Amino acid sequence: MHKQISFGKKVIYLIPSVVLLLIFFVGPVVLSLYFSFTNMALTGSNASSLRFIGLENYKHMISDPTVKKAIINTLVFMVGSVAGQTLLGFGFAYMMRSCHKKVRKVVGSIIMIGWIMPEMVAAFCMSSLFHDSGTLNMILEGLGISGVSWLYTFPMAAVIIANVWRGTAFSMLAYQAALDDVPSDIEESSKLDGANLAKKIYYIILPTIKNTIMTNTMLITLMTLGSFGLIWIMTGGGPSGKTQTLPILMYIKAFKNSQLGYGVAISIISLVVGVIFGVFYIKAAGKED
């Protein structure tokens, strides 16, 4: 017979995990929150005299136009990336259900390249694609169409496309696993009832995999919210701050302008935005259940 483990022993087993969580997650968050209320800096007089300044950094953010612009850019980048990765990921996963195994392997491997590629390498690849003398303009010129300065004229669209290209494989894998669990008899019944493809997807497939959709959307949102390397390498937050998201602005203020306290305060705003979206997704998933 299996012996039941007492509640006290269960708590003891959890102590190492709780300690690690406090050290590597709660601790840095609390420390960052404290630094956001200070004048912490890398250079100048503030670097040698750390002082508690209360809400000064947050008051400055309210009147700082770059922060407002960064919040809007972050939301645009996040919505575009989430929508693109979700739709393409589901589309590829659904289309490959009826494909031959060899076709699935080839197409899946091609899509996976962007995801398994390091972020810096992916960013350089997409920079080469959208550069003034890059691959995309070479193709357009070959078709008799004049090229466009994509990273200057449409910088936000360029970084969204790059992020979607890189992250679609994650959504595709999640939806492939979910679609494999959809009962085939339900789909067959919908065909007999005369349901077309659109109705079958809307009334049968989507409600069946709703939990996967919600979880995948939440994960993509949080990953996109913290995206830094891709945008920094492709545009550096420019031109004129058009792709300057909260992580980019935080880096510029903290390490380029040496305003560490102000940069940390911006990171807290980014954390709050992530928490808001996380709570929204959790509540939405609860209502669905």
UniProtKB/TrEMBL annotation:
UniProt cross-references to Pfam families, sorted A to Z: BPD_transp_1 (PF00528)
Descriptive protein name: Sugar ABC transporter permease
TM segment ranges: 12-35, 70-94, 106-130, 142-165, 219-240, 260-282
Alphabetically ordered keywords of this record: Cell membrane, Membrane, Transmembrane, Transmembrane helix, Transport
Family, similarity comment: Belongs to the binding-protein-dependent transport system permease family.
Organism, scientific name: Diplocloster agilis
Membrane topology annotation: Multi-pass membrane protein
DNA repair keyword on record: no
Main location: membrane
PANTHER family: BLR7065 PROTEIN, SPERMIDINE_PUTRESCINE TRANSPORT SYSTEM PERMEASE PROTEIN
GO cellular component terms, semicolon-separated: plasma membrane
Occurrences of domain ABC transmembrane type-1 (ranges): 71-281
Transmembrane helix found in the keyword field: yes
Annotated compartments: Cell membrane
GO biological process, one term: transmembrane transport
